[in-house]
Amino acid sequence: MSIISSKVSPNKKPAVLAYPKGIMVRMGSIVLKKQEAPKESEYDTFLSDLVALRPDLSFEFIKNILLNQRLYLELYQDVKQAGLCPVYHYYTYGNKEKREFCSPNFRALKKTTLATGTQKIIFFDTLKSNASFLYRGFFPEIRNKDAQIIHQETELVVALKAIFSANEMVFIRPSINSKRTKYFMNLCKVLNIKISMNFDDLLTPEFILEKGAVRSGIANIPSMKNNLVKDSAMLLGAEKLILSTKKLGDKFSKFVDEIIIENNKLPIEYFISKNQLIQKYKEKTSDKINLLYLSGSKTHLKDYTIISGCLIKLAME
Q: What angle (nearest 5°) sits at the alpha carbon of residue 255, between those of residues 215 and 109?
């Protein structure tokens, strides 16, 4: 499987939230567009750009962290017989053809000097319409000129240039099942880029009964617990945690020293001003109010069941 493609379960559709028009206008400055695979001259430009972004690294070292060249040639004899550079082939044709990405042997690579980049990279291996991606990544950073946001639909070449320009990379809900997450995290380690992790849920196995899918009765508990055990091990690689509540901060305090609490927030474009609200109240023609209940996917069925009675009673009064 190509590192660009990620498995999305057909039975688990991500929660989707529409972008306001005001935000759509500004999305051009954020990494959202797909690009064509580079031609040979574009491949040379790609490598030159990486060298320019990290002048402390040699040309050969950079090629070694882009692909395990030996394994790629063993796997694809046609590339070997053609005498092509495996890195050139993968980033020009192989990735587009969905050929297997051969992750570098990072254990054999020496950690570089401290990253000199200025960018903060936010990454979540999901669709850009995913609710958690929006709340935890896109909305908080949309006005941050020093931040770039990459996701499942971001072209690999674009993502790598962003990472090479970084001094910090934030992984939103990282999963061991994501090939891109594992590769990007290892890349950050060898490039000496600070690794931060962003959570808005208790994603360690001891709190499995508090998971929305479990409370809603739709979870495969043994499978979920197995995934949580594996995913929670990734916390050991975090230098900073960005969490949505103080409760999460208390629970995760034993993993890292640096913890920041950032509540889930919607951007100002979703709201009207106080003066507009007062004016609408003055112009009202009915005593009725509109109730808006915002929730997530079917994993929040239990939450809705708890609150629905109160909402119905309030609506009837």
A: 115
